[in-house]
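Example 3.2
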Amino acid sequence: MAELSLTGGAGPPNRELMRLFDVSSPDAEKAGNRTTSCEEVAAYGGSALRLQAGGYEALLLPERGGNMISLSYGSLSFLRSPRPDQEAEFAEKPSRYGIPVLFPPNRIGDGRFTAAGRRYQFPVNEAVFNNHIHGLFVRLPWTVLDQGAGRNEAYAEVGQLVDETHPVYGLFPHHFELRIRYTLAAHGLKQRVRIVNHGEKPLPCMLGFHTAFNVPFSPQGNPADYTVKVPLGEHWVTDERMLPTGRMQELDDADRLVASGGASPFAKEWADYYTACPRTAGRVGPVNAMELIDRGLGIKLVYEAGEAYRHWVLWNDSAAGDFICVEPQTCAVNAANLPLPPEETGLLMLEAGDVWEAESRLYAEAWEGGGSVGGRFEE
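Structure, written as tokens:
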């Protein structure tokens, strides 16, 4: 994959990047035709699927939680991927890298909840707070259901098909399928989720993604040049166990900057939960999207979560300085245990035969001091 010539510091945006990220330009069309493939490769001690299309490259780890572990464009690396010296941490804490799948997301107090009159008990794997954390599938292998490439895109679909033979059935006794299809093209990475309840009883549907972004995207980048913007609504008040109390509070100064013009990803130590408040973008309707901008290199990364994800979590590992997790969730943390109606918690019960689908998109654009060049993902 060709390397991009990057300009460091706070100078003008790189014009080559502007041409390549403008999907209507002839240069972008050439980049899109450069390589389109989906192939099995060895990575992180197992088998992986490498997708290439439109100048982008992505790496999916079906055997490691179905984690989309990297997304890059030339020398730009957007998702946090483990270096060789971080592979032990990746094995212990997979949620710190890539796009981990959380079903259910974040924490459940005591690992216990009741939904539709049925009691569930998950393992307590966060001993310090006596919580279950990060769901049932984040460490399990996922089945590859489809893979391939066409003229302009590459794709891979992984899934969990749960019945009595599945390892999570004893904890979550439902017949259902959870499928995630990734499609890579010149407009970036599209993620389509499909959940089907094949059982007779209502299925608690609670989903999130612990998406981890590099700051910076490139060795030529400077973390001080970065701003993050997320459409935050209200801030959940949490207790000493990192569980929402059911009360809301107003955004603080740093949160208000994130929700409006943007703030440094390390403006404070984030480990916080919010409702989503999609914003109108020009002539486009409400958009529930994160923007992570490198003002020095002139690059904007956009993470369109879609309106199905009504909650956001921000976490930056005590403002450590090299990544931030911006996490879309369909429901609040500990949703099934909150003394609030499902319209507020986001807890969704899928009836027998019901299907739930959602779509997200992740792509880069050249950015030019308050505006951007390049098209949003369109089919």
